[in-house]
Amino acid sequence: SQAIEMAREGRWFVQTLADVPDYYKGPLHYILTRVGFLIFGFNLLAVTYMNWLFALLGAISFFFLGTKWKNEKTGTILGLAFALNIGIFSHSFASQMEVELCGFYAIATALLGISSLQKKKSGNFIQKYLQDLPFWIVAGLAGLSKSPLHSFLIGLGALTFWLFEGTLIKRVKSPAAWLSALTGVFTCVAGYLPAYLLDQKNFLEIF
Fold first, then answer.
1. What is the DSSP string of the chain?
2. What pTM was computed for the model?
3. Which has more pLDDT, 128 or 139?
């Protein structure tokens, strides 16, 4: 309903429900739904394509993780286990945010695992910055779905993982690692800036 109202009014970031300002959830799903209207028209595919896309991206991510960890058979099992589990499948037919979030968590988990399995070499500042950048970008984007809380949870998961992996202290001492994490924070904040700038009073009162 919100995406339909946004499309009717020609808006991409100002969110309303029954023509009342509504910022209880992040903007990503509504933007993706509006893109769906432009590509597919006003039909079921337009409001659910993002579910299939994120299920596929999550499955591919786990495939690469499993292949890196063991072999292609393991990767295939992990990918199919994610994409075909009953929770993903049942939510794929509804215009909701659950599959998007699961996709973000899957991609972030795979990026953490793959990074951990790779043999790391000491590099320059740019190489160290880029090492964790894909993970932090995904973490930042996840906060644009339902809530920035998910960015925080994914980030907290990474810190816990690195603690047990024994690499957290090294990252804490690295300015490049801090800049990489801050890029993820900026990614999340930037997604909310248009609504803040266009509808500041309502955004601050509701969000």
1. -HHHHHHHHT-SS--EETTEE--SS-SHHHHHHHHHHHHH-SSHHHHHHHHHHHHHHHHHHHHHHHHHHT-HHHHHHHHHHHHTSHHHHHHTTSS-SHHHHHHHHHHHHHHHHHHHHSPP----HHHHHHHHHHHHHHHHHHTTTS-THHHHHHHHHHHHHHHHHT-HHHHHT-HHHHHHHHHHHHHHHHHHHHHHHHSHHHHHHH-
2. 0.91
3. 139
